[in-house]
Amino acid sequence: EFKDCLLQGVNAADIMFPCTFSLVNCDLRFVDFISLRLQKSIFLSCRFRDCLFEETDLRKSDFTGSEFNNTEFRHSDLSHCDFSMTEGLDINPEINRILSIKIPQEAGLKILKRMGVVVGG
Questions:
Q1: CA trace torsion 25, 73, 108, 29 (10° rounding)
Q2: Which residues contact 70 (CB under 8 A, 6 or more apart)?
Q3: Could you give the C-alpha distances from 52 to 69, 76, 105, 112, 121, in angstroms and in order?
Q4: How many other C-beta atoms can be found within 10 angstroms of the C-beta atom of residue 98?
Q5: Cβ contact 45:25 at 8 Å
Q6: pTM
Q7: pLDDT digit string, tens, across residues 81-112
Q8: What is the pLDDT of residue 118?
Q9: Dihedral over Cα of 78, 82, 84, 88: its sign
Q10: What share of the chain is helix, strand, coil (3-state, %, to 5)?
Q11: Distance (Å, whole) CA 76 – CA 36
């Protein structure tokens, strides 16, 4: 478990993480999570800047209260993830699995816009 820390310039590809992985109130800058199995991980109140999650299994992970700035999810499994009270979240549903996720309204509107759906009148 990591609390109140800074992770910067880390390529976490192929790192074997423990069964439970937890980051609380951490700053992550230029961190790449590639081809990892991080199911049920905890990322509470973290700030992600210029990060990448690619081909990563994040099922049932909790990102509550986190901020995303120029952070991408590509070909990742986000099923049953909790993104409640997050800011800046932008998920492309065409290249990620997003079954039963919790997201703020702003992120939901971005997803609908990507799909060509206009909400409002």
A1: 30
A2: 49, 50
A3: 11, 10, 22, 22, 35
A4: 19
A5: yes
A6: 0.91
A7: 999 999 999 999 999 999 999 999 999 999 99
A8: 84
A9: negative
A10: 10, 30, 60
A11: 9
Supply 9's token pair.
């310039």
Q: Do residues 76 and 52 lie in contact, with contact meaning Cβ atoms separated by under 8 Å?
A: no
Q: With contact defined as beta carbons under 8 Å apart, do 114 and 92 qualify?
A: yes
The CA distance from 117 to 44, in Å, is: 31
The architecture (CATH level 2) of 1-116 comes to: 3 Solenoid (2.160)
**73 C-beta neighbours (distance < 10 Å), count:** 24
Record the tokens describing residue 110, joined without a space: 């971005």
Chain CA centroid to CA 106, Å: 15
